[in-house]
Amino acid sequence: MSTQPSPYDILFEPVRIGPVTAKNRFIQVPHCNGMGYRDPSAQAAMRRVKAEGGWAVVFTEQVEIHATSDIAPFIEGRIWEDQDVPALARIADAIHEGGALAGIELVHSGLNAPNLYSRETPLSPSPLPVATYTADPVQARAMTKADIADLRRWHRNAVRRSLQAGYDVIDIYSGHAFGGFHHFLSPRYNLRTDEYGGSIRNRMRLLREVLEETMEEVDGRAGVACRITVDEMIGDAGITRADIEEVIGELGEIPDLWDLVVGSWEDDSNTSRFGPEGESEQYVAGLKALTSKPVVGVGRFTSPDFMVHQVKAGILDFIGAARPSIADPFLPNKIREGRLETIRECIGCNICVSGDFTMSPIRCTQNPSMGEEFRRGWHPERIKVRGSDSRILVVGSGPAGLEAARALGVRGYDVVLAEAGRELGGRVAKEARLPGLSAWIRVLDYRAQAIGDMKNVEVYRESPMNREDILEFGFEHVAVATGATWRRDGVARWHTHPIPVDPAADVLTPDDLIAGRRPRGNRVVLFDDDHYYMGGVLAELLAKEGHEVHLVTPEARASAWTYNTMEVAKIARRLLNNGVHLHLNTTVNAVRADSVETANAYNGAADSLAADSVVLVTARLPEESLFQDLTGALELGQIKTLRAIGDAYAPSTIAAAVWSGRRYAEEFDTELAPNDDVQFRREVTRLAETY
Ligand code: ADP
Ligand code: SF4
């Protein structure tokens, strides 16, 4: 490690958060992880890795303070009663073991809590339907003064339990329309006419009371932070900049740290398709001047220079990160040690967010070890050394092949990576050229850089491999990462058998468009039965190129699965603004020479749409011919091991392909449990004594 002064030294200055001192300016701000109360040890191991990677403070996700704050089916933390303390203590202990301060984010979810598990009546400033993603048919009751007194007491209880659990920083959540104080602050949700409603002074009353009581309860034993939405992004209907200037003007000196967020979670965790790094600067700049206390903010920061700018320009004191810390838990250490080229930059895809939305353990496109620290013992920077001096051939350099080659290389194996084409990266290199997806190239960049530094990994481009080549070169261990191709027969979810396609029709697949082919006519029908990003991205591409695009989908929303990445509304807006015609709840049943036959997805009502060309975004077929050819060689004992990985095994997300490559590398030369058994560690609920 260099002892020379570095332009990044400013990022490693200690900063006080009330009674505790952060060793540097990096804070892993609270982030959900789909593990929460269900998988506490998995979360503990994940947070420990973050701490080990150099973050000064590592937070939990939002932790519900009471049974009226229950946001089931989503899985967050819970500190409802004393029996929740040991799990949270385990997380705090793990963070301490990693060398960071442990932070906890306390939430009373208010109008965001449908209480589907607890069946308590939701509490809110005003009697409104709950504000949840799932539009639950539940209404909240307007809080009485007695309810407010209860809430304040519950908060104190949660603060006391947080201290018992060993937390050093306690964050009071008033952001993203998730934290209940947000609902009090916002004229959108606060329709009260008593001293808790009306003017911003009144609307901040409850937040003030809770902050003051938290300071009193903490009594110098921990730092106190306040996480607050600085602009609700809906004009005067919501929390405005002027409101928040008044809030920080009034309450600015009460907590030890201000944690500034923008709008809703969708606004704050924007994907790279819809916004650049540091997008929130415009909303956060200037607020620091209103308080003597430090401020932290986020911006999908991965550029150390940009981080330095945030501090030097007086915008932030702390660099906050959720996603960049997920993609690279060792980001601070890598900057400190001057190993910038080894940073695994977040690509801004929000696959991590999909873990929360699908209530499954967090995953990350860039960091396949995310969520696997406890379950499989994976680590973002370390992997066990090789178990033999085998030489391994990896065929195909998409995300699966790249990650397999990289991780095997780190293990110390001699690896040959053979790629048929001239460029590396497979689908990532190609898809990164589509509108809005340029940051995805980082999946290749990180791995190409890592592989380039390894003498034991050889890369051969323009090297299509077949069985004869492989046997001739004497490879004994082969990973087949040859990817997949998009189908052109309509098979996907709606149609599980091919649909009639007139040979005279101009039919294109995503592969054709990515390879540069274009529709022969102006009027294009795009049938999306995939439902992730590809259909919407290609509709956008063709519309921008001047085509009249009709997107037909059996789902009720375009790119419906992107609900899980918080992009679905943004995609619809962009498509409509680009003139794309949406035909929702509609399927394509046949492709004719100059039209498609459609049917309503509910009642089958038949119709047709004129089409010069048709784009089918349906299922993909694994490219498994090489794998099948080699199966014979394996049976004959001509090779020793053979595995298909990534899309060549079963087409899925880029994140799944990277994970599959990592799994191959982890399991190579490893004695595995029989696959009748679960292949990873689980934490099973402890039974109550009686029932
Ligand atoms: P994944 O997502 O599983 O990594 P991709 O489709 O992104 O799969 O990448 C597959 C890569 O494999 C492509 O770059 C493709 O050119 C390459 N490939 C396919 N068949 C062969 C082959 N027989 N020999 C070498 N490379 C191949
Ligand atoms: Fe970034 Fe995507 Fe990883 Fe989330 S899943 S941290 S957005 S690379």
Automatic annotation (TrEMBL):
A GO term, aspect molecular function: iron-sulfur cluster binding
Annotated keywords: Flavoprotein, FMN, Iron, Iron-sulfur, Metal-binding, Oxidoreductase
InterPro entries: Aldolase_TIM, FAD/NAD-bd_sf, NADH:flavin_oxidoreductase, OxRdtase_FMN_N, TMADH/DMDH/HD_second_a-b, TMADH/DMDH_FMN-bd
This protein's record includes keyword Iron: yes
TMADH/DMDH/HD second alpha/beta domain sequence ranges: 508-602
CDD domains, alphabetized: TMADH_HD_FMN
Superkingdom of origin: Bacteria
Domain NADH:flavin oxidoreductase/NADH oxidase N-terminal: 11-339
Cofactors named for this entry: FMN; [4Fe-4S] cluster
PANTHER family, per database record: 2,4-DIENOYL-COA REDUCTASE (PTHR42917), 2,4-DIENOYL-COA REDUCTASE [(2E)-ENOYL-COA-PRODUCING] (PTHR42917:SF2)
Protein name in UniProt: NAD(P)-binding protein
Source organism (scientific name): Actinospica acidithermotolerans
